[in-house]
Please model this.
Amino acid sequence: MPIFEELAKSVVNGDVERVRELTRQAITAGEDPLEVINNGLIVGMNIVGPRFKAGEMFIPEVLMCARAMQAGMELLKPLLVGQDVPVIGKVVLGTVKDDLHDIGKNLVAMMLESSGFTVINLGVNISPEQFVEATKENQPDIVGMSALLTTTMEMMRNTIEALKEANLREQVKVIIGGAPVSQEFAYEIGADGYAPDAASAVELCKKLLGK
Model:
């Protein structure tokens, strides 16, 4: 449908105002809000992810795309009350203790939300105990940790140990990311996966949940 194609294209272009305008048009035309999300907004973000991964788009552009998608979602959410919005899974995200970097983590959060995940973004400087608390409280499918300093990487290991001690490790998948982190380190500390960038993180979460 032309309006959905135009909407997807506007998301890819990161054009917040155009996305708002087209979303309003779709609502006025009586389109099903879920169709607008699935066939317009999400189609757009599904183009953005691979382009970002391939190095054809950069973080500022992807953030604009995610903001454009969120602008459409804000208009559609009130219309979804009572409808079962398909949620792929729930993810608790945080930057580990003593680390204050959050651009990468926030990008992961935006792209996960854009792909149909519920995200609980804990913020930065999150201790193992806080990760355990958030896991108990929110019952997520996945716990995601980010570190940008080599000195804070060990906090990922400590958090996994804390989840084990709280008997929660079997209930969740644990993924890690950040510049100094590697697949080898993920194996070493017993994480379920590692993602080098936000688009890979979305793919990894889907794969771990069999989606």
